[in-house]
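Notebook, student rotation project (T.W.).
Task set for the rotation: take a protein with a known small-molecule partner, predict the structure of the complex, and write up what can be learned from the model alone. Partner molecule chosen: flavin mononucleotide. Sequence and SMILES entered below by T.W., checked by me.
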Amino acid sequence: MDDNTLYSTIFRRKSIRKYDLTPLPDSTLERISGVVRCLRPLNAQIKTEMKFISQADVQHNFLRIKAPHYLVAFSEKQPGYLTNIGFMLQQLDLFLAAEGIGTCWQGIPRPSKEVGAESALEFVIIMSFGLANEPLYRQSSGEFKRKPLSAISNIAGLDDLLEPVRLAPSATNSQPWFFTGDEKLIHAYCVKSNFLKALLYEKMNQIDMGIALYHLHLAAQVAGRTAVFSQHAGAKANPPDGYYYIGSVELQ
Ligand SMILES: Cc1cc2nc3c(=O)[nH]c(=O)nc-3n(C[C@H](O)[C@H](O)[C@H](O)COP(=O)(O)O)c2cc1C
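Predicted structure of the complex:
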């Protein structure tokens, strides 16, 4: 699917929590598998594994949203692995939404023990998908409940690239991101949580950061630029108050 289609989906997608439980046709699932095999990582050094499972393979106590299909992401536990999975699965979220298939990130459910035991990697997160039994799209970007741009960045003159980032989905819609820098080099930071909140949210927040970085990457591509991800010691040493450093994006 071309970047322009994925990009325009940012402005109308929404989480789908009501599904038609009829399984998708095999041919559709095969196409989705093909897309999953080609998901682009933020860090290609981190091993990941994706598995398609059904409702029966999700632990019942944690299952709040019933869908015909779920994708489970596993990863090697290396620095940045959660952000890497966020970056990868957001590509699937946009692809499926663009194809008319509903999705929802699932921070609470876990795969069954049997499915967990099939991977040597660490379980990270599940995404539900299937045909929607509710409206699939928002009618306009005004329907998104999001912070204003001024609350997520202090960079001037980059609104066209930061607006799609502002609309990114995040766990409990917390939008934990803040961006500093300039038109050529952007530094991404994540909000610090207190000890108790960190237990619950730190993992999700780092996945959220990967989602936002994918929206930035896509917006840059569509604007004819390339986003190159790196680590900057200076930016890491100087986070805004209340935030910690995730990474930097050079816009070429
Ligand atoms: C990492 C992550 C975990 C999430 N976990 C859940 C979840 O467990 N249950 C749920 O209903 N929605 C979950 N969501 C969906 C968010 O609540 C949703 O993205 C956010 O409220 C913004 O709404 P939107 O996606 O419709 O734009 C999750 C989203 C993310 C990014």
